[in-house]
Amino acid sequence: MKKLFVLLLAVAMIAGCCTAALAEEELRGPIEIRFIYHSLIDTMESKGEDYQHNRITDAHRQNSGIDFVITPALVSGEEETARRAMILASGDVPDIMVLSVEEYMQFATQGLLTEVSGYLDSMPNYMALVPEAARDALRIDGELFAIPGSHEEVEMKGGGGIIVRYDLYKELGLEKEPQTADEYYEMWKLVKEKYPDMYPFADNNFDAFKAAFGVLSNTAFDEEGKLVFTWATEDFREYLTYMHKLYAEGLMDPEYLNYNTATMQERWVSGAAFSGCRGWADPCVTINGVFDSVPGSELKYLPQLTKDAETPTELTEIFPTQRILAIPVGAENIDLAIEFIDYMATPEAKMIQDYGIEGIDYTLNEDGTVNQTLDEQNEVGWKIAYEFIPTPESFQIRLYLKGFDWAFYGLLDAREASNTTVVVDYTTFLPAYDEYLELSQTLGLKAYADEMADKFIIGERSLDEFDDYIAELEQRGLAELTDVLNEWYNMYN
């Protein structure tokens, strides 16, 4: 009986191998894909998962009928950009390559990417899933050189928010939550008095302050309708004056220049941080250790900081495209690449990306709703490394399942309670312009402005010398760079 069982098992294994081999032969391709790097890739080996062949990638192969070889990007963004440029220049290119916005603008204008508008009619699933705004943002003179996914956090704008230890904030006895710069200043002074061992503001991210003073965007229009650089304006002087006051009076961490992620985490986990400027994800995954290390701790976003009661804070528009799937010129399997991208936008593929494999990672209730625990979602969390078409809907699924919605909507609510507007940073949104890029790099004015900003904040340079700072920018070529900026803007406006 035992021999019969072993024989049957062997036959079954051989049959399975033959079926797998047959299925592999029936797949078309392979297409070559240079994709993203995600830190969860590093957890796969410990879970016994192979990056190239696992239940997620194999399900996509079988369902699409297309085989693929996928290569993750390098961990270092700078090194990956250099590698992508070398690959495109070599002519030995993959069929699909993920690019950043800056890379896309540069490579498209250099003629290295395939124009894809003519393929959109053959992509019904993709066209139904991704809004036109995501494609319009990438059009250069009406032409489209990539298949984009929409930005997951479509409601969120750039600028961060002031998050506080709300359990301690409630002990301050303030009649109303602060909003203006002066009200925040008074709150931080009270924190210093009541909690002398804490840093009232412990961060090196000043985006909320920059937004309040109108200098978060690199560009702004002057009274004549000409674009100028915000780091060469009177608004910038006001911003620096306020930040220096916080620094000089001990209301912010004097070590902010030496901050890294570990330093910031230590400040919160040790109970030394009262507040900071953080995006919605940080209280969920970066400084969330405070909940365990400091019993009774609460985190909450206060209303968006504004310069005064009348002036709206200028949040920055988020680029509507999150993932840019380009097909390099010289790709051998363009039609298969287009078909595969369209498959990744099907409801079937999105279910795999959102939840995993039915019966393994989740089950369906009788009414068709998904039943998945947080542990089950986290166990297959590495599937995010294969998400081709990001959407707000997929983001919301992860947001609620992981219990991160309190932070995301907490930041949105804080903005709703404030006087805000949204502006566009044209150095981010405009197609690449080689003359601007080359001149900007040659002059190095933004780097110099950042260096001087820190000197002004910590008092190494007196704010009485701000006019001298502007004169130094002029001597270094500010007028020339501003002219090229406006030439660039007028070219595409």
UniProtKB/TrEMBL annotation:
InterPro entries from the UniProt entry: Bact_solute-bd_prot1, SBP
Statement: the UniProt record of this protein carries the keyword Cell membrane: no
SUPFAM superfamilies in the cross-refs: Periplasmic binding protein-like II
Gene3D superfamilies xref list: Periplasmic binding protein-like II
Entries under PROSITE patterns matching the protein: PROKAR_LIPOPROTEIN (PS51257)
Signal peptide range in chain numbering: 1-23
Entry keyword set: Signal
Positions in coiled-coil regions: none
A Pfam family that the UniProt record links to this protein: SBP_bac_1
Signal is among the record's keywords: yes
PANTHER family, per database record: ARABINOSE-BINDING PROTEIN-RELATED, DIACETYLCHITOBIOSE BINDING PROTEIN DASA
Protein's UniProt name: Extracellular solute-binding protein
Organism: Candidatus Alectryocaccomicrobium excrementavium
